[in-house]
Amino acid sequence: MSDNDDNETQGVVFGVLAGVIFGIIALVAGLGMWKASQPATPAAQVAAAEAEIAPIGDALAKVYFAVGKAELDEADKGVVAQTVEALAAKADGIVLLSGFHDPSGDPARNAELAKQRAMAVRDALVAGGVAAERVKFRKPESTVGEGSPEEGRRVEIRVQ
User: Fold this and answer.
1) Considering the chain, what percentage of its residues have pLDDT values greater than 90?
2) What is the pLDDT of residues 90-100, one digit of tens each?
3) Residues with Cβ < 8 Å from 100, sequence gap 6 or more?
4) How many domains does the chain have?
5) Residue 120 is part of which domain span?
6) Number of helices (H), then strands (E), in the chain
């Protein structure tokens, strides 16, 4: 083999290698642009909707939960009738649910538990006759300062 053949082989190898590298870069850039053009996920849309509604007035009712639990007690299911009655008086009203958690423990786990509690209240309201589209959520909130531990494990119900 001559030096010319070695140079030609190296040129081909470098050309193929450059083509592969360019292809990978183009693929990564294309995937990044495709992902950016995708619509927001439903979870992101729910989070955006949660932050937009401010609570008005005092809570109609508060539902308290056991530590680490997201199930309603039988006694708490009485808030359903109270909420249905208040909603009937406001034809265009909504039910706003605000889940709370205390600042102790893992913040992400607490926020998820507060959300599950609010969803449990929503499920009870819907089962009791409230139209699902009339139930809105607020972003889970942390209780700060003084108050009983139960205050950190509540969902507030407002009809507004």
Assistant:
1) 28
2) 888 999 999 98
3) 114, 140, 141, 142, 143, 151, 152, 153, 154, 155, 156
4) 2
5) 45-159
6) 4, 5
